[in-house]
Fold this sequence. Notes:
The chain has helices at 13-24, 31-40, 44-53, 61-73, 90-102, 117-131, 138-152, 154-160, 174-184; strands at 2-6, 28-30, 81-84, 109-114, 165-169. By secondary structure, it is of the alpha/beta class. The chain is globular, with a radius of gyration of 16 Å. The mean pLDDT is 96. The chain binds BIS(adenosine)-5'-tetraphosphate (B4P).
Amino acid sequence: MFIVLLGAPGSGKGTQGKILAERLGLPKITTGDLLRAAVRDDTPLGREAKKYMDDGKLVPDAVVLNMIKAELAKPEGQQGAVFDGFPRTAPQAELVDQTLGERGQRLNHILLFDVPEEELVRRLMARAAREGRSDDTPEAVKTRLQVYQRDTAPLIAHYAQRGVVRRVPGTGTVEDIATEIQRVIGR
Length: 187
Ligand code: B4P
């Protein structure tokens, strides 16, 4: 089973992805974590990515597509996985569709997290106070919300045509949302 977590920054993708992957026994591929690790390790990819991430912009597809390709090729994710934080653009969606298609597989569920914007901002500001992530500043958060609407939200229509989009109310307790996700995907 292949599941994509889609939603604005702060909508709970990382939080719910971790729980869901554990409950289903599936690996979770998280592009945000991979990029943050590359930044921490000061690799060429990380140095390039950091220029965009700190401003709240997407890392360009020219930089990210190869990373995603390499992740999809790993043996542990061949029979199913939770994709957290990607696809985020049309070319990324195309890469995922093509790679799974070549293996006779497809995306089974796109979980779309519905959270009002003021709640997103509140969560990210709370995380900024707690963890000090370099892209949780008010300016970067504003950019991330705009970039989500412009580049990522159009993917909803792309997947809705295939009937795989499942809306999940993203407000409430973490456990209630996790339970609702399991209900929605029938597991
Ligand atoms: P991500 O790491 O994906 O960051 P995000 O969208 O903010 O989501 P995240 O998973 O961290 O937060 P969550 O909603 O779980 O991306 C960061 C950057 O990396 C991007 O801006 C971009 O530059 C780059 N990037 C990543 N993937 C890319 C790609 N494919 N292409 C190009 N660039 C890419 O949670 C947020 C907070 O809410 C947490 O503190 C959590 O504790 C809290 N929360 C969660 N659920 C809650 C609930 N029910 N109630 C209250 N609080 C809750």
